[in-house]
Structure to design on (197 residues):
């Protein structure tokens, strides 16, 4: 897993000027905003490119002070024609700063255990492909398990049968997840105007 981004996430009450059922994306250099509004709630994400990306097993842990400092650094940035981010942050119900991991693991199963969702494929959340992909993976896993059980005629599967079933699931999903991870990462980079220059 690699970490190239951190994200200020949170929820607050509905705010006039953001619409009642809208998604707002605001681009900027090295960071971007994603704001989802409902009549009574606003969900916000501020994606910030790290100066020094890192890979697992290193992990950064952030404090409330880190979150406040980041929020203050983007507080004056407009998120709509009549609203700056600082107003959303000031009225938040909850907010925190997290690392955003990306990656697709090489091994998705061992013995009688198979992984699904973010436990083996993590993508940046800008375009909601993580949750959708997790549901797809669970469906594919269930389909492979059902097919195996039909062929077993109700008999208990052997370790080799389970291993083959889980391997087929991994082989079906892994290429798609690598593509989705790369695409999601590209969108996050484009929204933060990341260029090689």
């Amino acid at each position: 897993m690699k970490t190239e981004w951190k994200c200020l996430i949170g929820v607050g009450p509905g705010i006039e000027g953001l619409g009642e059922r809208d998604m707002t994306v605001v681009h900027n250099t090295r960071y971007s905003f994603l704001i989802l509004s409902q009549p009574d709630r606003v969900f916000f994400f501020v994606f910030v490119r790290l100066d020094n990306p890192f890979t697992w097993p290193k992990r950064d842990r952030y404090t409330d002070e880190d979150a406040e400092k980041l929020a203050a650094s983007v507080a004056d940035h407009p998120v709509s024609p009549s609203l700056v981010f600082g107003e959303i942050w000031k009225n938040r119900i909850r907010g925190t700063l997290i690392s955003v991991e990306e990656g697709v693991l090489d091994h998705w199963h061992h013995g009688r255990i198979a992984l699904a969702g973010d436990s083996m494929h993590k993508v940046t959340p800008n375009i909601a492909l993580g949750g959708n992909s997790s549901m797809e993976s669970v469906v594919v896993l269930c389909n492979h398990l059902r097919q195996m059980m039909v062929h077993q005629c109700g008999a208990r599967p052997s370790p080799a049968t389970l291993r083959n079933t889980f391997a087929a699931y991994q082989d079906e999903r892994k290429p798609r997840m690598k593509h989705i991870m790369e695409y999601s990462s590209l969108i996050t980079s484009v929204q933060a105007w990341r260029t090689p220059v």
Q: What stands out?
A: The chain has a mean pLDDT of 91. The two ends are 25 Å apart (CA to CA). The first strand starts at residue 2 and ends at 13.
